[in-house]
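Bug #2210: token dump truncated for Glutamine synthetase, type III?
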Amino acid sequence: MLSRISDIFESPVRYVMVSFTDLHGVLRAKLVPKSHLNSVLETGAGFAGFAIGSVGQGPHDPDLTVRPDLSHWIPLNDAPDIAWTIGNLLLDGQPWHFCTRSLLQKVTEELRQQGIQAKVGIEAEFYLVKETENGHIIPADTYDRAAKTCYQLDVLARHLPFLTDAIDGLESLGIDVYQVDHEDGPSQFEINWVYDDALVTADRFSFLRFWVKRVAQREGLIATFMPKPFSHLTGSGAHVHLSLWDTHTGRNLFDDPTDPSGLSMMAHHFIAGVLSHAAALTAFVAPTVNSYKRLSSPTSLSGATWSPTTITVGANNRTHLIRIPGPGRFEFRAMDSSVNPYLGLAALLVAGFDGIRRRLPNIEPSKENMYGLSSTEIVDRHISRLPGSLDRALDALEADPLFSDAFGDAFIKGFLAYKRSEWDEYHQTVSPQEIQHYLFQ
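Reproduced locally. Full output below:
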């Protein structure tokens, strides 16, 4: 990835895709010839906010603008004369309160002022699917039928053209992929790349979704990051690995070799903060109606959902909301691949730092298999559950003042309004299951 602004003018690039993410994490863009890039750098590319639908504007409001952040520009390896860049939404030259990238920048800048950098890795899971002649969506690989198909070599080998094309493109663009695997569901894959600064990782996750879809289309397939595209198969998560670092010494502030879990007291406070606000946090990291089909699903074909349902912390144990895979970091498992990464990571950092500020007590990691507990046992042991639906997550968010304080009342009220509208629309649709169950009663 090239980083200096002058590089783009000296490069073969002829066009720049100036993009931003809307509230839902969807990339929006304009194509700008390089000959007009200077004017866009000065005044921004204009967008009618109401046409986007999720940035808090009506049809009467003035245009929003986006100034590209040219420290994050990427030439496309399959079209080297075209570059992608991302920027922040502005109104009259000032940050717009519905710009989620600005929210993450604000949170990370507040940390930097305290000498702290958040470093994050995201595990990007997705399905490759195709459309049948009758319009049904099915997994792309019709030979991938085993109940426990995870890591199968023959499946991985059948998709080598797609996978190597995707990896080569990502690596040529500066995204350091270190492994790819076939996941738990048929035609489900995961791409792992080296962790980095929280904002850089959010930018890269946004681009990765765009790029993987683009490569899949060239293969005649669809790459979907929908959390639960098939009711009987494992959902697609976006597990987060997080640590905090000292900007002056380069030391991992979460690492403590004297602790049984390898975590510092700061890390334990942070984790306690995440658990304290987990119900509200879920509205950001599992942001769609479909997200809760993943979090609340019964056992999948493989025998496990691999999704958390309880607000608990485990050792190296994937049945909990938080897993401690090793010293100096933790994994947060509720986030799914439909997330707006800027908003999800900003909310995670805000929740964790509230735990540090309040010095919330350490919660001992459990080795218990949470999937083995019945609902009665969970209730009897006073174990808190994650919200089971979007409306319950939104209720929890509305009741938790932390995020209004961090992101502003206007943003939270707007987010709640958009998401409640999504929930209402879902309930106004009559599903085939309702016809099947109720038509002849």
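Output looks complete on our side. The two ends are 61 Å apart (CA to CA). Marking as cannot-reproduce; reopen if the truncation happens again.
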